[in-house]
Amino acid sequence: MNASTASPPWVQLDSSPIPGTSATLRLLRQDEAYSIQVGDAELMTNLDRRSEQALATIACTRLRDRPNPRVLIGGLGMGFTLRAALEALGPDAQVVVAELIPSVVAWARGPLAHLFGDSLDDPRVEIVEGDVNRLIQSGPARFDAILLDVDNGPSGMTRRENDRLYDRWGLKRAQYALTRGGILGVWSGKPDRRFKARLRLHGFTVDEVRVRANGGADGPRHVLWFAVRPDAEPAM
Predict the structure, then answer these.
(1) Residue 88: closest CA among 113, 115, 58
(2) Angle ∠(203,185,152) on CA atoms, nearest 5
(3) How many of the other CB atoms lie within 10 Å of CB of 30?
(4) Is there a contact between 120 and 158 (Cβ–Cβ < 8 Å)?
């Protein structure tokens, strides 16, 4: 390959420490491609967005008959889950997005603003800079859906504290925070039979959906779980 056809190098636009770890979150650009990485491991890219969109579209479509649905999204990322949720929900919905790292929110209004469009200014949206786990614990039956796209799924990459979202106590807290028949949606970079079994053990009815990240036939396949809270009140 000669110099005229070689791909341009990735350029780092910004970086941020990840609270509670020694790792660094990095935002990089190569032409129209953007990547958020932990070290050299890619967490997300704007080129592979279909599974993040499907997480919101599938869950929120199931809420269309609910009056004033309230949705909690864990992780702002590049905004694909948020935008898909807003498209699937009606004007009476509320969407709360919890993002732990302030720089990610700054990127959403800066170098990634074109990916977010006007979603951050939608009157249905509230951005909370903080741990989604705290919002889940903030009160009973607060949300009709909780959508978690945090730390690459149950097998995390960045923060050991994120395991609390997916362990037995995390699932109990999610049940507590969901309304009856509410949906816990979880994105994962790979299958996890133990996690799926743990959802069922705690009384959730579980659907597993696999989605190509780029919508094509040869891209990576991500895993989505949609776990419906039973009608009975959970024991805490």
Answers:
(1) 58
(2) 115
(3) 14
(4) no
Q: How far apart are the first and last CA of the chain?
A: 61
Q: Give dist(CA 78, CA 75) in Å, integer.
A: 9
CA distance 82 to 211: 18
Helix axes 168-177, 193-201, angle to 10 degrees: 50
Q: Please, are residues 145 and 183 in contact by the beta-carbon 8 Å criterion?
A: yes
Contact (CB, 8 A) for 41 and 189? no
Look over the chain and give the mean of its residue pLDDT values, rounded to a whole number.
Answer: 90
For residues 172 and 137, the answer to whether their CB atoms sit within 8 Å is no
Token pair recorded at residue 190: 């790979």
Residue type, 185: G
98 Cβ contact list (under 8 Å, min separation 6) = 72, 73, 74, 75, 128, 130, 131, 132, 134, 135
- pLDDT by residue for the chain (236 residues), tens only, comes to 455 567 899 999 999 998 888 889 999 999 999 999 998 888 899 998 999 999 999 999 999 899 999 999 999 999 999 999 999 999 999 999 999 999 999 999 999 999 999 999 999 999 999 999 999 999 999 999 999 988 778 865 554 566 789 999 999 999 999 999 999 999 998 899 999 999 999 999 999 999 987 766 677 789 999 999 987 555 55
* % pLDDT > 70, the chain: 91
Q: Does the predicted model carry a pTM greater than 0.70?
A: yes
**CB contact at 8 A, 14 and 36:** no
